[in-house]
Amino acid sequence: MTQETLSIRNNSTGEEADFDLLKGTIGTPVIDVSSLNKKMGLFTYDPGFMSTSSCKSAITYIDGEQGILLYRGYPIDQLAEKCSFLEVAYLLMNGDLANTQQQQHFEHEIGQHAMLHEAMRSFIDGFHYDAHPMAMMVGIVGSLSAFYHSELDMNDPEHRRISAMRLLAKMPVMAAACYRHSIGYPFVYPRADLSYCENFLNMMFSLPSQKYIDKDNYIDPVAVKALNLLFILHADHEQNASTSTVRLASSTGANPYACIAAGIGALWGPAHGGANEAVLSMLEEIGTVDRIPEFIEKAKDKNDPFRLMGFGHRVYKNFDPRATIIRKACHEVLESMSGSDPLFDLALELEQYALKDDYFIEKKLYPNVDFYSGIIYKALNIPVDMFTVMFTIARTSGWVSHWLEMMAESGQRISRPRQIYTGNELRHL
Ligand code: SDX
Predict the structure, then answer these.
(1) Does 266 map to a domain?
(2) Does residue 237's CB lie within 6 angstroms of at least one atom of ligand 1?
(3) Within this chain, do residues 319 and 370 fall inside the same structural domain, yes or no?
(4) What pLDDT score was predicted for residue 208?
């Protein structure tokens, strides 16, 4: 099959060169400009990587215009309806859904790796009680390489697999430990008789020597179902900012714990994973439906840095399929748990108001995954400053999948972008 090419002509010099047009299984073709500097002495310029592909990947596919999200080819709504988070994590990491025996072994191994090194408790205790849990997570996840410095031969696929399993297994344990530290409660250890999401709820909310209890003294299946759904919807999303950070850090050969800690730092930003926490703060600031117009005008005012948190997306320009699923789950969770939440009612009103506003229509700004997720987390009694930590737990499955995919590729090169220099000409002291 002849390779399709595309010519680039420099109109100021008349120079012209051909470049390969690469096509994936589905999606937008890309121009391979890796030889642009060699052939034409030029670099590309694309701040924010609006039109730049950084890698090839077989893990997730997004069609922003159609609102399509596929994990290893499976539509997100089918996975959300039919699978558990750990079944989706296995799919992302291994390329196919596990059979019963494979899934049982996978979940048994997750249980085996869940315990933290006991010395980590004193590390966590070193934080002030009011440290933001994301600040703690960046620190303690990075510190894993101090506790697990064996099995770090990144050329050994088994060492890579074990590191990925450790991260997936320990993330909810570290997250719950950060929360317990912030309220001065003793840490709760993971248990072999509980599922991934049951364990997390138990480690977060159980009272000493008791399973996590709610009004009926059992782990609420509605809460477990909601967590599985939210973790699945947040598991992976192509080359988003935090995943790209993990890939860039990994390209230097840094150990996986340091790379994932870098991803956590990137996710924390309010333009990215920090948006779910910012949405709740925004809804609480708006307070009542009659103040919605005031905040919509602020979001449209170019002189006002305020943005409508939970709206807009670099890729989705018609709707975020995850927001659609989460909005429906919000109704179910609130009806079964707390009846209603004025913030959810306010969110629905805000969504309807924004979707009718010319500015949001013209800019193609729709609710994204973060718009409703915080309301469910709030209904589950997850504190607001833990919302991005919840995103971290889920996205660890995507980050380690991209890390495994990247580390398995031969000929990996360090990521090292170029720039346009705008500083001083050569000058002498
Ligand atoms: C996530 O990449 C991923 O896949 C991320 C994610 C994932 O799963 O990993 O989906 C998770 O991070 C979701 C996004 C969560 N962030 C927020 O909700 C924060 C609010 N949203 C914005 O900050 C913004 O929409 C972004 C960051 C999400 C997208 O930014 P872009 O693609 O760079 O868009 P832009 O900033 O260039 O905005 C285009 C225009 C601008 O106006 P003009 O300069 O053209 O006049 O739209 C405006 C922006 O001012 N705009 C908004 C807005 N978002 C964009 N105006 C008001 N409110 C907003 N929320």
Answers:
(1) yes
(2) yes
(3) yes
(4) 62
Nearest-10 crossing angle of helices 100-113, 85-94: 100
In a domain, residue 420? The reply is no
pLDDT for position 29: 96
275-286 helix and 292-300 helix, angle to the nearest 10 degrees: 130
* pLDDT of 215 strictly over 50: no
Give start and end residues of each alpha helix (H) in 183-309.
Answer: 196-205, 221-233, 241-250, 256-267, 275-286, 292-300
Q: Which long-range contacts (CB under 8 A, 24 or more apart) does 26-29 make?
A: 26/61, 26/63, 27/61, 27/63, 29/4
Cβ of 22 closer than 6 Å to ligand 1, yes or no, is: no
Do 11 and 102 fall into the same domain? no
Distance CA 324, CA 368 (A): 9
99 and 8 in one domain?
Answer: no
Q: Is residue 162 part of a domain?
A: yes
Q: Is residue 196 part of a domain?
A: yes
Q: What is the pLDDT of residue 210?
A: 60
Same domain, 86 and 33: no
Report d(CA 160, CA 399) in Å as an integer: 13
| Protein residue closest via CA to atom 15 of ligand 1 | 272
Q: Is ligand 1 within 6 A of the CB of residue 271?
A: yes
What's the gap in Å between 320 CA and the centre of ligand 1?
12
Average pLDDT score over residue span 394-403: 98
**pTM assigned to the model:** 0.95
How many domains is the chain built from? 2
pLDDT of residue 211: 54
Give the domain range for residue 10: 2-53
Average pLDDT over the chain, rounded to whole?
94
pLDDT average, residue stretch 25-36: 97
Point out the ligand 1 atom lying closest to the alpha carbon of residue 243.
9
**Is the CB of residue 313 below 6 angstroms from any atom belonging to ligand 1?**
yes
Same domain membership, residue 49 and residue 106: no
Q: How far is the CA of 365 from the centre of ligand 1 (A)?
A: 8
Does residue 114 share a domain with residue 18?
Answer: no
Q: What is the mean pLDDT of residues 352-381?
A: 93
Stretch 126-143: mean pLDDT, rounded?
96
The residue type at 119: A
Q: Is 365's C-beta closer than 6 angstroms to any atom of ligand 1?
A: yes
Q: Kindly tell me if the per-residue pLDDT of 385 is higher than 60.
A: yes
Catalytically annotated residue among 341, 357, 370, 385 = 370
Cα 238 from Cα 392, distance rounded (Å): 15
Residues 47 and 181 in one domain: no
- CATH code for position 283: 1.10.580.10
Q: Answer yes or no: do 252 and 205 share one domain.
A: yes
Range name among 136-145, 198-207, 330-339, 408-417 with the lowest pLDDT average: 330-339
Q: How far apart are CA 373 and CA 394, in angstroms?
A: 13
